[in-house]
Amino acid sequence: MKILIVDDEQINRTLLLCMLREAGFTDCIEAESGEAALDIIIQQPPDLVLLDVIMPGLTGFEVAPKIREHVKNRYLPILFITALDDKESLVRCLEVGGNDFATKPFDKHILTAKIKAHEKIWALSARIEEQNKALRFYQQRVAREHAIVEHIFSHAIVNEDEILTYFDHHLAPAETFNGDVFICKPSPSGGLYFLVGDFTGHGLASAIGALPVTRAFQEMTAKGLAVSELALELNNVLLRFLPADMFMAAVIGEIGADGKRLTLWQGGMPEMLLVSEDGNVRRLNAKHMALGILESQEFNSDSDTLTMRHGDQLVCYTDGLMEVTHDKKEMLGEEGIRQWCLNSAVVTANGLYQHAKSYNNHHVFDDDVTVVVFKSQPLALHKCAPVELDIPASIDIALTHQHLKLEGVLQRVLQVASQCSGIQLVRSTLFTVISEMFSNALEHGILKMDSSIKHSTEGFAHYYAERELRLAALEHGFININITALPTDNLIKVSVKDSGEGFEYQASPQPSEEETFGRGLALIKSLCHDILFEEGGSKIICLLKTNVTN
Predict the structure, then answer these.
(1) What is the pLDDT of residue 3?
(2) DSSP E strand boundaries for 361-458
(3) In the chain, which segments carry CATH 3.40.50.2300?
(4) Third-level CATH fold of 158-375
(5) Quick one: 345 exposed, middle or buried, by C-beta within 10 A (0-12, 13-18, 19+)?
(6) How far from each other are the two terminal CA atoms of the chain, in whole angstroms?
(7) 3-127 domain in CATH 3.20.20.150?
(8) CB within 8 A of 154, min separation 6: which ones?
(9) How far apart are CA 488 and CA 392, in angstroms?
């Protein structure tokens, strides 16, 4: 510890030097005046100052404030040494910046004890300052790293303004980085894709998963993949990148160029709402687990397709919105959000967010919040130009009853179908048609299932349980699939022939253009240019145009 002794009398300085050396303080500096002390403070900063009060020139009372001004935030104890013993003088010693005082004549033991006490405080202060320096460095490093990550995110997760104009959206992260993700991209056929995802937790650890998801989503949507393919591949991506305790609840959707046809895959997300112009609210519940949990052989990528009316609003939100609580500790919940949509003349993303915020007794959200609203309308988006002079091609797939029992057989069929030429603009539609034709052939043609039992939740579960039993017991049957590309006619022909007895296709109802429907033959008819039935309905032929206009 370096000690500066400031006293105009040599005898006092010598006495203090001897006392300090006997006490073990050998690093001492002398100054005979206040001016000399200030020079030493600048050139050889001490760790403690013994300062006389009465000196010619600058007095101790004048020197102390100047020392404080120079050292600023550094802890430097100043002990006044004075012959003054009146109360006012001693109080002033402390008021001008002193930490303590010692009266003349000096008491060796008291002075040494006071210096050692201040030495402990000085050592503690020095240690705190070092820790503060380390903390400031760490904060600067974290701020720099955050800035880099924010720069990466701002360039990696970018939605095009042309696509974004079709969505009313509000994103509110609980921290600097958002564990929710919203991506929208155009499809080659003039429609658009969107993804709303919610990673486990919030903050940077959750947000980092959005990078591989965004890249994969961008690459796959540019190729026009079907929603079921997107879900399967994103699940594989997250299984590779995320730790076992992380996953992403998600809604993956594709909207056709007419702004009506909607294909959805929902996993682990709150219910979506379809709000009509007349105020009716339809619930769309998630049927799957979140992405990044199940292995490929267990994962269900089946999507649902429905038709909206122009003016209908599709509302999607993450669970941070519905988990806000009121004073009575009651969550807003899906019911609260649904009631707000029923009672609101206009449904907006910000309006729904503000409703949840006003319901929240803390007026802050503990989790990331994302609200996305799409209003059904025709899409005026650029379509990719079809490949010129594409070659005709034909693919035949023959499935026996053993093949039909294989896990993921439909996905394998779709992988083979993806090799067909000329499907760039209609790939998603083609995959939906093949999936429906295959399911109809297997479930109704071969297994003879009755779809009417699926009208209730219990019936739905019973239907698929019975389907698994009949499929396991299947001992004969086949499905033959042919996919033929006719580029000169701008057509793709798909035929599916099963070994069943057929059905009364003439009695099948024609779907209305404004009808809201799910899966089945009505969906196939709505997607295809033409549909033909042969061999008593056991063979279906569908024609898809590859140059569909908006």
Answers:
(1) 93
(2) 369-375, 393-400
(3) 3-127
(4) Phosphatase 2c; domain 1 (3.60.40)
(5) exposed
(6) 84
(7) no
(8) none
(9) 8
Kindly report the backbone phi and psi dihedral angles of residue 168, in degrees, each rounded to the nearest multiple of 5, phi listed first: -95, 120
Instruction: Report the candidate in 247, 246, 272 with the shortest Cα–Cα distance to residue 194.
Output: 272
pLDDT digits (tens, 9 = 90+) for 167-192: 999 999 888 888 899 999 999 888 99
Cα–Cα distance measured from residue 270 to residue 251, given in angstroms and rounded to the nearest whole number = 9
Cβ atoms of 45 and 132 within 8 Å: the answer is no
- Quick one: tokens of 490? 């701008």
Strand segments, DSSP code E, in 281-335 are 281-284, 304-307, 313-317
Q: What does the pLDDT look like over 260-292, one tens digit per residue?
A: 999 999 999 999 999 998 889 999 999 999 999
3-class secondary-structure state, position 14: helix
Return residue ranges of the chain for CATH 3.30.565.10: 393-545
Q: In this predicted structure, what is the pLDDT of residue 72?
A: 81
Report the percent of the chain where pLDDT is more than 70: 94
CA–CA–CA angle 533, 538, 541 (5° rounding): 40
- Contact between 371 and 352 under an 8 Å Cβ cutoff? The reply is yes
Helix axes 60-71, 34-43, angle to 10 degrees: 20
Nearest to 256 by CA among 487, 437, 513, 441: 513
| pLDDT for residue 550 | 43
> Any idea what DSSP says for residue 357?
H
The CATH number given to 393-545 is 3.30.565.10
Tell me how far apart the alpha carbons of residues 457 and 97 are, in angstroms, rounded to a whole number.
80
Domain with CATH 3.60.40.10 in the chain: 158-375
CA dist 220 to 216, 230, 383, Å?
6, 7, 16
Report residue 477's pLDDT band, with 50, 70 and 90 as the boundaries: very high
DSSP state string for 99-152 = SEEEESSP-HHHHHHHHHHHHHHHHHHHHHHHHHHHHHHHHHHHHHHHHHHHHH
What is the pTM for the complete model shown? 0.70
